[in-house]
């Protein structure tokens, strides 16, 4: 999707067009035997190869075998809006009469089809518990220093090369806490948890990420009252949309020489 950005590099500001990879939620529903289809999982993904994603997830989770996959199709509810038509996949399985117990809770909730990016942003903001950040936020000069500062504290990455990092920083660029994990979402949860367990509020001027920015990471930042996100990689469409609605400043493609601000 095309978007307008402002690139900050070498003391200049360059307004230009950029492109964001699309991120949308996919609801995977499962029909077993003659029962009504039930929600099994909702995951964020780049649209495309959705049937393969649904089938692979079910097999990898042990909910189905390749032989039990009878049919995979998009939901055909007549009330779906155009942007919702391809965000719900129903998988029909042969044999058995119910999903394994560990996925019953995950399948609970609204049985209506129609999850879409707009719904996800609204839902994320509806359950937000922290107030928006009202303090100072880092400017572009500070932003460009943050990835190198984060990298200097990635000791586990130095030893393994196989982990992501997240850090909380103040508006002056001082890192408050840094954590590493094989999962970028886990790294963000760890820095927030570190603050909470220390008796400190998780809200901070900035969340610094070693990779790209997906919807769930912005959702976590909004839930914790974080003011801005600085990432080495790019945001997705849904991440940029949620950041905008939540009042979070979003910076991507950040290095010592440049950064891109997604207004």
How is this structure best summarized?
With 263 residues, this protein is an alpha+beta fold. It has helices at residues 50-60, 104-107, 117-126, 140-151, 155-160, 184-197, 215-224, 237-246, and strands spanning 2-9, 12-19, 24-32, 38-45, 69-74, 88-93, 164-169, 175-181, 206-209, 228-231, 249-252, 258-262.
Q: Can you tell me about this structure?
A:
Helix 3 (about 115-125) runs parallel beside helix 8 (about 235-245) and helix 6 runs parallel beside helix 7. The protein folds into 2 domains: about 25-115, Ubiquitin-like (UB roll) (Roll); about 130-260, Cytidine Deaminase, domain 2. The two termini are about 15 Å apart. A hairpin with a 5-residue loop joins strand 3 (about 25-30) and strand 4. It contains 8 helices and 12 strands. The strands form 2 sheets. Strands 2-1-12-11-10-9-7-8 form an 8-stranded mixed β-sheet, with helices on both faces. By secondary structure, the chain is an alpha+beta fold. About 30% of the residues lie in helices and about 30% in strands.
Structural class: alpha+beta
Query: So how many helices?
Result: 8
CATH topology of the largest domain: Cytidine Deaminase, domain 2
Number of strands: 12
**What is the approximate shape?**
elongated
Helices and strands, in order, run as: EEEEHEEHHHHEEHEHEHEE
Report the biggest beta sheet as strand number plus sense, adding barrel if it closes: 8 strands, mixed
């Amino acid at each position: 999707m095309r978007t307008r950005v402002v690139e900050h590099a070498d003391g200049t500001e360059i307004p230009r067009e950029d492109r964001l990879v699309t991120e949308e939620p996919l609801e995977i529903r499962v029909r077993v035997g003659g029962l009504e289809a039930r929600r099994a999982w909702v995951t964020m993904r780049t649209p495309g190869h959705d049937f393969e994603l649904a089938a692979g997830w079910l097999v990898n989770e042990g909910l189905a075998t390749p032989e039990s996959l009878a049919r995979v199709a998009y939901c055909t509810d007549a009330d779906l809006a155009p942007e919702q038509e391809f965000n719900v996949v129903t998988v029909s399985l042969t044999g058995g009469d119910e999903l394994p117990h560990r996925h019953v809770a995950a399948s609970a909730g609204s049985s209506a089809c129609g999850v879409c990016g707009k719904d996800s942003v609204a839902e994320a903001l509806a359950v937000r518990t922290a107030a928006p950040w009202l303090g100072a936020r880092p400017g572009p000069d500070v932003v460009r220093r943050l990835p190198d500062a984060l990298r200097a504290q990635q000791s586990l990455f130095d030893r393994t090369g196989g982990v992501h990092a997240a850090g909380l920083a103040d508006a002056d660029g001082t890192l408050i806490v840094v954590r590493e994990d094989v999962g970028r979402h886990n790294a963000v949860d760890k820095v927030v948890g570190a603050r909470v367990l220390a008796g400190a509020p998780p809200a901070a001027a900035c969340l610094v990420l070693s990779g790209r920015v997906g919807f769930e990471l912005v959702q976590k930042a909004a839930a914790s009252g974080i003011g801005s996100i600085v990432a080495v990689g790019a945001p997705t469409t849904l991440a940029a949309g949620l950041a905008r609605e939540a009042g979070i400043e979003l910076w991507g493609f950040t290095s010592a020489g440049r950064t891109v601000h997604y207004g």
